[in-house]
């Protein structure tokens, strides 16, 4: 069990919709409202922090990972179960920086869950993935046969054409940034150091058909914060840049106005060879505000309006980046049809307070659907024979306004109309990222 300090007063990240659940449970034959499409046969898994009862990890991002799973088959919701990811931090109290140096198996594995080459991985950006079974038992840490020599981001990118999984790891010691590529068979076939000026928190990145897009932004590692909180904070001196890396590893950097990005939407190359990147952008003020709240700061900054949809266009001919705010609504957790990852797409799905918001980024049109509670990330699931970019469904765990219960909501991605919802046997704390894993 973890050795994190006991709670003295309840910080915001252990309260309300973020309050952890105390145990692991299971339930079968869950009540369904509406009609679940029979094509949705598989598992919806969602990861998030859930510290053990009586423990305070010091920051929302640091709590022990727990995956909530819902099994759908042939129009029925067969089961729900929630399981902690049994990392060495969870079972033995191991620490990332221990007596024998850096231990990348001592992680929370709390951020996302993916499947690649038949391997289900729970991910957190501070260390190695943990492999899970389809029933959410923990298999153990995964370093791809000893080849992984850095941490692994929780936001790898699957190239829909090649089947390769691109990812990176960042660290607080050089090399600060390392790019990796897994083959479609799950073999780590490339690792490449990328030069950046310093150790920054890099939560996400993007790929296009021919490039990898880096976000080197001014949230910088601070040694003085080690042991007190997540050791990163905004820097007014670091600057901000986006990098476009080609297959040979050459990076062209573009200076941009300082900001922070947790999550990108899609990226692509346009007909002129420019790189277009859509992302959810925080200003200095909105970043420091949210960082204060989720780290339990005694003096959280005033509400600042959150993060908004933003577009950068990077032109290798001129070496210049242009940028444009695309909306003024505070949103997060962008998702899209990942069959188009790195290619032309125009539709993006986000969550905003109690609503799911669909953007047509090209026309500027938005469609807003009240979720009837607080929705988590809305995962896009393509329909098998869909012709349109939005042919498919959105799946999101929504917690009731009362805060007492949750459901798995399924919407039609085209019009955001209700399709079905599955009543879950308990409240699911707000968390991070999920995946739909269709039966193979
Ligand atoms: Fe994330």
Helix content: under 10%
Distance between the termini: 35 Å
**Class by alpha and beta content:** mainly beta
Largest sheet: 6 strands, antiparallel
How many beta strands in the DSSP annotation?
35
Helical element count? 2
Strand content: 35-45%
Rg (CA only) = 20 Å
Low-pLDDT sequence parts: 1-7, 298-303
Backbone shape: globular
Q: Quote the average pLDDT.
A: 94
Bound molecules: fe (ii) ion
How would you summarize this macromolecular structure in one to three sentences?
This protein has 440 residues and is mainly β. Helices cover 4% and strands 42% of the residues. A hairpin with a 5-residue loop joins strand 22 and strand 23.
What does this structure look like?
By secondary structure, the protein is mainly beta. Helix content is 4%, strand content 42%. It is built from two helices and 35 strands. The chain has helices spanning 88-92, 284-294; strands at residues 26-28, 32-34, 42-49, 65-73, 76-84, 97-98, 101-102, 112-116, 119-123, 130-132, 138-141, 157-158, 165-170, 177-182, 188-193, 206-207, 212-216, 219-221, 232-234, 241-245, 251-255, 260-269, 275-282, 308-315, 320-325, 332-335, 347-352, 355-360, 366-370, 373-375, 379-382, 392-400, 406-412, 418-423, 434-438. Strands 2, 30, 31, 32, 33 and 34 form a six-stranded antiparallel sheet that branches. The chain has a five-stranded antiparallel sheet with strand order 1-5-4-3-35, with no helix packed on it. Strands 8-9-10-11 form a four-stranded antiparallel sheet, with no helix packed on it. The two termini are 35 Å apart.
